[in-house]
Design goal:
The structure holds three protein chains of three kinds. Chain B is an alpha+beta fold. Chain B has eight helices and 18 strands. Chain B starts with 6 loop residues before the first strand and ends in an 8-residue tail after the last strand. The chains are: A mainly alpha, B alpha+beta, C mainly alpha. The interface between A and C is large, with 91 and 92 residues.
């Protein structure tokens, strides 16, 4: 009995702690969400702004119109989908070469590929801007998309799965008459679907959320992604319109939060692929 | 028209690089497998039998020597063009495809029309009792069923040569026995040459038209199961085939200078005036027979196989065994080769 | 075997070309080019460049601007890395219990991975806004500086304020990584420690911590690299300001920022970018060397 009581108290304590920490973690999101759901003056009326009363979509609606958020979202979606498909494709191809083909200097080539993971965007963006400029790609979709189409992270992840395909299966396929091309598409790719899902999600999120490169390569309004466009809702000189940005933030973040909740498992897989041994 | 589809290996050698060293897995093997023969490659693990099979399949290139399938030298022919099919130890089924798709797949790759494909797959499935499982995936099948799918996938192509690499080793004992019978049956029905790799002498003895015994990459003996049992070509073959293995007496005993005599347990019989004396230290009653394990000062450990009955000795008895000259296998004490 | 190797070459080339080409053009080339520009001085249109020698790297490194920016970068790492590591570990330990509803808490704790740099920064920009932000209104009793001049505008508070935003945004990632590591610790280890009579603190110290130490080291290196390379948060929250002291102008902002002094000098920017890359590598190497020995890489 006494042990049960202690156990129960401990459990209650843990729940209480979990709840408190959750409130702290979620507070910024909650506060901004509620501000976005209030009309202008209400959203600055603290702490009443934190109560879920007098809710309205006015702020989000005007942020949508003023910020041309539909265009921004569409741009982001286009770029993220294109990059996701492209990265999956290039990763599958290169991972296949590293996992199933035998060619001279394979280890050296792989090491060189791996080394590119060490080069941070902060170093390359500078010159990439010039490259994009000389190609006429500044303020274009290809400028946003093409430089991100290859990902060594993706190659590495897919290669790990391919290496687990049993050798006898590859040999059986060779006897069945399957060349490399068909083995890749009709056996290796279907077998690695869960990992490809994780990779796709990961790349999609990364592209959707990218800031530095889009902020450099896009200077006009037409090709802005949502991440870049948000900044233009920021009006430091007119604080009465500060709530506009909360509307933009909600629009930008909601699709991603929904994706996170739905695909949490895949996301965790992608994020931890390199981090946890075994 | 009957295809001529024997397999001939001529001076086939395979060396692997292992770091600095070269390891010879298969050493200058000559082997003729006749058309429609059931050839079993038998030997302990690491003897090179799988490597030999994989060279026939084209999954490994020989370091030297030639491989013929039918009349054609196939060293430079891709595996898929060799008119062979192979069943792997792990079955190597496509996990994401249904049983039907697995069986049809080799035909699909070869662009066989769909109707024909379906009919062939159905026939193969029917023959192997898989008709009820066509829509399942390999993960939902038992080991025995998976093994049958692998067989069906191989026979659907009607290959000239059928290669099998320890296909029964992942099955339990009961299933293994049943499948042996089925494979023999399958071989009778198909127009194919079978080459079958195993380390299990029971599989070899029960199924083979001929057995090729390999040891350390070399071919020790080729012959029918009965020949190999009755006239083992070397000490290795003599001891590898037969359970319990042949008794091997020390050089000189019963045979003369430089000769080792081997005796099958069933030929080592108690007799009042037997030449070898031994003390019984264990008796194994197997129902239809009794194994007598004895220790002899002159001959070392001995095993005798007797019919059950009142004459069977008990532990502690001192027994004299005799060997009839006709039952003696005589081997050269240094080379281990059989003497005439 | 050699024949097979040769047979595969055309396929290998075909399959590697897309990735290799892209990585060459957009990763290797710019790196090489940045090193190259690092010892040149060019006009704005890059039509004319002249070699000024490798000394440009050391001149940039020794310049007051770079030294100040380096100090800001390092301070930022000191503010964010230990905090992020400890909080990530704490959250993961808290949620590493199989109790009812834990899935919900795990989603909440990992939720900030969904926030982008821009979203996270602007959320905090709104919260910290001195005239009408929630935090300024509610907590200015405790922290008067929230109101006047506002944390993002104060010389001493701007960088810690950016750090708070950054730690919050990185919490989800740290939580997920540590949680995965905790789940890969074999149960038997905990159970045998329990049977040996180890209390929860001892189990944490002698079982959990050693087993997840490689992951923590990895996380530390990743967080440090990110901290040194932080750009978006700075650009959106402070613009490298307050302008009088440049209290938040770190190295990336020095290179890319709109208010940066060397904005139009590709030579200086390239030199600074190359130095940033080298410094990131040095920091990572130091961490691997310094802590690598204490990390348990068991089977």
């Amino acid at each position: 009995m006494a042990a049960d009581a202690v156990h129960g108290a401990r459990k209650a304590g843990r729940y209480a702690l979990l709840a408190v920490v959750s409130v702290i973690v979620l507070f910024p999101i909650y506060a901004v969400l509620l501000q976005a759901l209030k009309s202008g003056p209400d959203s600055f009326d603290h702490p009443r702004s934190l109560l879920p009363v007098d809710l309205t979509f006015d702020t989000i609606r005007s942020a949508w119109t003023i910020g041309k958020l539909d265009r921004l979202l569409l741009n982001s979606l286009l770029v993220a989908v294109a990059v996701t498909c492209g990265v999956i494709l290039t990763s599958l191809l290169s991972a296949y070469a590293f996992a199933f083909l035998d060619f001279p200097l394979k280890k050296v080539v792989f090491a060189m590929f791996l080394a590119t993971m060490l080069v941070p965007a902060e170093v390359t963006v500078l010159i990439n801007y010039n490259t994009a400029d000389s190609l006429g790609w500044v303020n274009t979709y290809q400028g946003l998309i093409v430089p991100s189409l290859a990902s060594m992270f993706g190659v590495f992840l897919v290669r790990q799965v391919f290496l687990q395909v049993p050798g006898e299966l590859r040999e059986a396929a060779a006897l069945d008459g399957l060349g490399h091309w068909r083995f890749l598409w009709s056996v290796a790719t279907p077998l690695s679907r869960p990992t490809l899902g994780a990779l796709g999600l990961f790349v999609f999120l990364g592209t959707w959320n990218a800031y530095l490169w889009p902020s450099q390569v896009i200077t006009d309004e037409d090709h802005r992604t949502i991440q870049i466009g948000l900044e233009h809702l920021k009006t430091p000189n007119d604080i009465s319109k500060l709530n506009l940005i909360t509307g933009g933030l909600v629009v930008a973040a909601v699709p991603i939060f929904v994706m996170l909740v739905i695909f949490q498992r895949q996301l965790v897989r992608g994020l931890t692929a390199g981090a946890v041994k075994g | 028209m009957r295809r001529v589809s024997g397999v001939r290996l001529s001076g086939v050698t395979k060396k692997f690089d292992e770091g600095e060293d070269q390891v010879t897995a298969v050493d200058n093997v000559d082997l003729d497998v006749a058309d429609h023969e059931f050839m079993v490659l038998l030997g302990p693990s690491g003897c090179g039998k799988s490597t030999l099979l994989r060279m026939v399949a084209g999954l490994e290139d020989p370091t030297s020597g030639e491989v013929f399938i039918g009349e054609q030298m196939v060293n430079d022919v891709a595996p898929k063009d060799r008119d062979i099919a192979m069943v792997f130890q792990s079955y190597a089924l496509y996990p994401h495809k249904t049983v039907r798709a697995n069986i049809e797949f080799p035909l699909k790759v070869r662009r066989v029309p769909k109707a024909e494909r379906t009919a062939e797959a159905h026939r193969a499935a029917e023959a192997l009792g898989l008709a009820d499982h066509m829509r399942r995936k390999p993960g939902q099948l038992s080991g025995g069923q998976r093994q049958r799918v692998a067989l069906a996938r191989a026979i659907v192509r009607r290959p000239a040569v059928f290669l099998m690499d320890e296909p029964l080793s992942n099955l339990d004992a009961k299933l293994r026995g049943d499948t042996r019978t089925e494979l023999v049956d399958l071989h009778r029905r198909l127009d194919s040459t079978f080459i079958y790799v195993t380390h299990d002498q029971v599989e070899a003895m029960t199924m083979a038209s001929r057995v090729a015994v390999l040891n350390q990459g070399r071919l020790e003996q080729v012959g029918t199961p009965q020949e190999v049992y009755d006239h083992p070509a070397s000490v290795f073959v003599a001891q590898f085939i037969g359970t319990p293995p042949m008794n091997l007496l020390p050089a000189g005993l019963l045979g003369g200078e430089g000769v080792r005599v081997g005796v099958r347990p069933e030929h080592l019989l108690p007799a009042a005036d037997g030449a070898v004396t031994a003390r019984v230290h264990q008796i194994e009653h197997l129902g239809h027979e009794v194994l007598v394990l004895a220790e002899s000062e002159t001959a070392g450990r001995l095993v005798s196989r007797l019919a059950p009955g009142p004459d069977v000795p008990v532990v502690g008895d001192s027994v004299r065994f005799e060997v009839r000259p006709a039952d003696m296998h005589r081997f050269d004490a240094t080379s281990g080769m059989r003497l005439p | 075997m050699n024949r097979r190797r040769l047979r595969d070459i055309p396929w290998a080339v075909l399959m590697l070309v897309p990735s290799a080409g892209l990585l060459a053009v957009w990763t290797i080339y710019p790196l090489v080019r940045a090193v190259d520009y690092g010892h040149k001085q060019c006009n704005r249109t890059l039509t004319e460049c002249r070699d000024v020698g490798w000394g440009q790297f050391s001149r940039v490194f020794q310049s007051d601007q770079f030294q100040d920016a380096l100090l800001v970068s390092v301070k930022f790492a000191v503010f964010t890395v230990p905090t992020g590591l400890v909080l990530g570990l704490a959250l993961a330990m808290l949620a590493d219990k199989h109790i009812r509803g834990i899935g919900v808490f795990r989603v909440i704790f990992s939720s900030t991975v969904a926030t982008s740099v821009a979203v996270a920064s602007l959320v905090w920009f709104v919260l910290l806004q001195p005239q009408i932000g929630v935090l300024a209104d509610q907590l200015s009793g405790v922290f008067p500086s929230l109101k006047e001049p506002g944390w993002l505008n104060g010389n001493d508070t701007a960088l810690p304020a950016v750090a708070i935003s950054s730690v919050w945004a990185g919490l989800g990632f740290s939580f997920i990584v540590v949680t995965a590591a905790l789940q890969s610790v074999p149960r038997e280890l905990h159970e045998s420690a329990l049977v040996d009579g180890a209390g929860s603190f001892r189990r944490f110290w002698h079982v959990t911590l050693p087993m997840i130490s490689p992951t923590l080291l990895f996380l530390m290196v990743v967080l440090t690299t990110r901290a040194l390379q932080t750009y978006g948060e700075i650009a959106l929250l402070t613009g490298g300001g307050p302008q009088t002291t440049k209290a938040t102008t770190n190295i990336p902002y020095l290179i890319y920022g709109e208010n940066s002094l060397i904005r139009n000098d590709i030579g200086l920017k390239s030199a600074a970018a190359t130095l940033l890359f080298l410094l990131s590598g040095v920091f990572a190497a130091v961490q691997f060397r310094g802590f690598g020995k204490r990390v348990h890489y068991g089977s």
